[in-house]
Amino acid sequence: MDNNGETEQASPAHYACGRSNIVRLTVAQALSGANAVVVYATGAIVGNMLAPSPALATLPITIFVLGMAACSLPAGVIARRHGRRAAFLVGTGCGVLVGLLAALAVVLGLFWLFCAATLFGGAYAAVVLSFRFAAADCVPPTRRPRALSFVMAGGVVAGVIGPQLVTYTMDLWTPYTFAGTFLAQAAVAALSAIVLLGVRLPAPTAEELAGGRPIGVIARQPEFITAVTCGVVSYLLMNFLMTAAPLAMRLCGLSQESANLGVQWHVIAMYAPSFFTGRLITHFGAHRVVAAGLALTALSAAVGLLGADVAHFWLTLILLGMGWNFGFVGASALVLECHRPEEKTRVQSFNDFVVFGTVAFGSLLSGSVLTAYGWNTVLWLSFVPLALATLTLARSGANRSIRAPA
To answer: Which InterPro entries does this entry report, sorted A to Z (predicted)?
Structure first.
């Protein structure tokens, strides 16, 4: 065992302690996931309070996603050189910092400082999403989709903690709305760091430090292109609609409590299917699970177009969350099929970099489209990337059928 508290290589003994690692990663996912929930529930609203122009209301969430993209590759470098646990602890440090800076921004009324806080929040979220791949390292290859999805299931608790954190703390520090929420979020991030201290994962091997094949060679694989495209579209549309929904609800005259509950049910729907998504991938294959996710996302947009009352918003957000789960977890499982063991951290972090970099564009576009053209236009635009992902997935499935032996 090295000084990072990580074993030298994956072994039967390592797999024997895999259950403990997975439990800790799941608990950390539950605690850390509340960070993203708080940002999504409050980002556009606080942005609208502090921004010099309403068109910039969703800029903090865009910067949050940019932080995810910008920090995905550095987090991968840290994991490759010093082990995944080191990357986890750096990430939770950013989680504490985002809460402190966001609270200070609200107190001082500084929009730029709030945007800086969400940048650190994005860095934290990027590290948290790598928990799913770390879980796959804890089990034999045949059980990786189930381990990956089980850790993602920790987000169910995050879906409860985050919105309730907002509801019960947003008015604690009068007149600084949400300042108490951000301080509470910083405390939750610190608790997550304590949980992660007990994680034991294999230290980087010499082969992993060497890096394996060039990333360009890996990225040209048809299966990798399919995995990235479906991961991008699943996350892009979840973010595109989720960014606009709380503000759209307020613009439609609905209460903040209704928006908070909508976010809560959305996040629960994002992660609750993870209790069985891994089994579905094992039995039906990742391609079919991704296809189901894209169909659910299309259905969510269709429901949103039917009305603008609380019920329509909530059902849209619930279906959107389920669609994201099937699409994103399925695409993540496809990524695991595209790299060799020594290439895992590089390929996984590159995948996340592409996904979050694209999502950042969608987040900024969402706020602009919402303020200029309204909620229905945001929903209609969702069908364009859905069509692209569906065609890419169908082509990949056809190619697999051709290659399969008769």
So the answer is: MFS, MFS_dom, MFS_trans_sf
